[in-house]
Amino acid sequence: MAKRSRDEYECRDKKTALQKESIEAALLICATQFGYETLKEEQKRAVVSFVEGNDVFVTLPTGFGKSFCYFCLPLLFDILYNKTSWSVALVVSPLNALMSDQVQLLKSKGISAVICGYGDKEENKSLVSGGTFQIVFTPPEILFDKEWTEVFRSSSLHDRLVAFIVDEAHCVKKWGKDFRKDYSKLGGLRGLLPSGVHFMALTATASNFTRNEVIRSLGMTKPVMIIRSPDKPNLYYSVMEKTESIEDTFKPVIEELRKLRHNTKKTIIFCRTYQDCCDLYLTFRSSLGVEFTNPIGAPDYSIFRMVEMFTAVNTPSLKQSILASFSNPRGHMRIVIATVAFGMGIDCAGVRRIIHWGAPSDVDCYIQETGRAGRDGDRAFADLYYSKRDIGVTFMEDCMKNYCTNRSMCRRESLFQSFQSYSPLQKPIGCLCCDLCAIVCECSFCKF
Ligand SMILES: [Zn+2]
Ligand SMILES: [Zn+2]
């Protein structure tokens, strides 16, 4: 691969020479490569601001096309600077499942990408350090792993590096303090990366508080903020306290499966623990008996089951087959029971309902998880079951506690009140909004 000229380095450092029009024209070429006919205003602003030499903080809802904001960067820099050797973006991401989906997607669009991991062969490392891949994904831990230090410091990688991306950036706040401490060290990398390499942080949801924490921790300087309210007006929120047995609580869903079979609302049930997943799964299995598979009495293979578990214990091939069956509009699988960590890997169209069996501890996560439903804009449901024990834990955010226990304020308003971008004016009316608004709804349907 040809070595870059001095001019190219200088271009990366001073991007002032670029005209907005030429960036937009180049961006259109990238959009076409990714199969977009047009780009949304927010996508354009995020990319243009970044290329103009700013740190950028992107908060766009799930399914909006957020990833394109960085998927396009290496290609875009190549076009803009007429590169002879391609540009590289380094992407920090929390989960292997997410990264492998993205690598596959990128490859299908003709962009080379790789995931750095523990125990990778030397050969892979030297390919990464040589700048062979346009997009290099890594969990934060690998960036600070001794075996990888040399790779991420290599000058041929640095020469090509045009962007440092932190995807799912709310993890910086959520996990930086304890669970995955390396998240809190990312800001320190600024000193080690070439000076013209800016940061882009992306997340589907971040309250003002989370956003400020992430910006501070990553050492972002005056980032351009691209924010769209994560509120989805097509989502109906409801909250119930767990008072009955699992069987009683899920009776309506079990009945729905019995009656509607493969027309049952496509549902993800998020559990807090693996044990909860098992309990729920076994409840569905024993309650449904021969009706557990579709058509009734079909053999007990994953592809015929209407309910499946999606957890760390599944083999990769079973995970793939669950995702494929769940994504298929005519698939038999209607309900996937997942631990929260694994549920993040389920990003299928057509999900109509999210059930939380146990309250998540923070609002950002809750909004993000419920955002998996109704991506097509059609009506969808977010049901949460909590116990007094769930909300008694010390790390539970007050805002989430209030969301569960409040009996008067609209769920949507209590959920989004700490989001700058939220506007109550766009709220759906009464019975389309939430269980509490429905009680006082005066629409003709509710009144008579
Ligand atoms: Zn409401
Ligand atoms: Zn109504």
Automatic annotation (TrEMBL):
Domain Helicase C-terminal: 245-423
Residue stretches spanning the membrane: none
Gene Ontology CC: chromosome; cytoplasm; nucleus
Family per similarity comment: Belongs to the helicase family. RecQ subfamily.
GO molecular function terms attached to this record: 3'-5' DNA helicase activity; ATP binding; DNA binding; four-way junction helicase activity; hydrolase activity
PROSITE patterns named in the record: HELICASE_ATP_BIND_1, HELICASE_CTER
Catalytic reaction(s) noted: Couples ATP hydrolysis with the unwinding of duplex DNA by translocating in the 3'-5' direction
Biological process terms in GO annotation: double-strand break repair via homologous recombination
Domain of life: Eukaryota
Organism annotation: Amphimedon queenslandica
Residue ranges occupied by any Helicase ATP-binding domain in the UniProt entry: 47-224
SMART domains hit by this protein: DEXDc, HELICc
Protein's UniProt keywords contain Protein transport: no
Protein name: DNA 3'-5' helicase
The enzyme's E.C. designation: 5.6.2.4
SUPFAM superfamilies: P-loop containing nucleoside triphosphate hydrolases (SSF52540)
Lineage: Eukaryota, Metazoa, Porifera, Demospongiae, Heteroscleromorpha
UniProt keywords, alphabetically: ATP-binding, DNA-binding, Helicase, Hydrolase, Isomerase, Nucleotide-binding, Nucleus
